[in-house]
Amino acid sequence: MNKINTTGISLLLGVAALAISIQPVQAQTIKMTAVAGHPVIFPWVKLADEFFIPELDKRLAAANSKVKFEWTRAWGGTAVKLGSESGAIKDGLAELAFVSTIFEAPKFPLQNVSYVAPFMTDDVAVMSKVIKNMQAKIPAMNDAWSKNNMHFLGGTGLDSYHLFTKTPINSLADLNGKKINAPGPSANWVKNTGAVAVAGTLQTYYNDIQTGVTEGALTFTTGAFPAKLVEVAPHITKVNYGAQFAGALVMSKRVYDKLPNDAKKIVDEVGAEYDARFAATMAATATTLMQKMVEAGAKPRELSAEERKQWAAVLPNVALPWAKDLDAKGLPGSLVLNEFVAQMRAAGASFPRDWSKE
Length: 358
Prior knowledge:
five-stranded mixed β-sheet, D-Maltodextrin-Binding Protein, domain 2, alpha/beta
């Protein structure tokens, strides 16, 4: 029997192992469905479509990441209706979504603090920063995302809300008896004014006003312009209810948690840049679009500081009962409200009413 040449075998095994080790690493392709109830004409979806997705792909490729995403874009309610995006993520029907917290208030009650405490700031960047800081500081706020299988990527603050109506509003008395589209928590902003709040969304306002279901809508400039509201509601009362936190771009936590650390880092970096870019461009965009609406025939009227104080004073303080109700449910409602007011004050915001007090 021939003696086995163990040295030769060891050499061959070593060469084989080396050959395997220098083979290019196969990319892990992850299929991703991206959803939003709003269409891509709205800036929060447009930025996800034109910046977040391609930028994420570009940075992963540049870093030679093992992860590669294969995208199916389903914006504009083509796969998931507005207000159902978080459910789609939780149920595994989508892997990336823009979640409108205003339309999913029961799941994100603490994130809606700005809607129960209006008139705080018209600075979108300040609003976004305050909510982001609060989510980092108050665990219950961050938990709202994780318990619904979502990883927070970047939030969106909306430019200040105003009133768009068929006829001019020259005083609070002119609101008496008028039906106004005001979704979710913003319905509180017309209480005690004599107006009647009617549910709706940016996709329904135009038709509601045109057909007489309502006589106007409470909304923000960057939403009103693509919705062409001034065609049916040319009178803009610049109440300045304030910028609002209204939603976030999120990724499925199941997907995110399985990513290698280098890919997680890139995802988070691009998400933070989405947040910053959105905040940086909204104010300038709102100014430009307001001017375009004026050029198209809109008739704006800005409330004086005294009028604004009067409008804020007439509203019921829904923030305090909102906070106490959440306290009773085991959520830190009062803590969130007090922190919100304190951080706004620290950021230099000047507001006509302190909602944390009776």
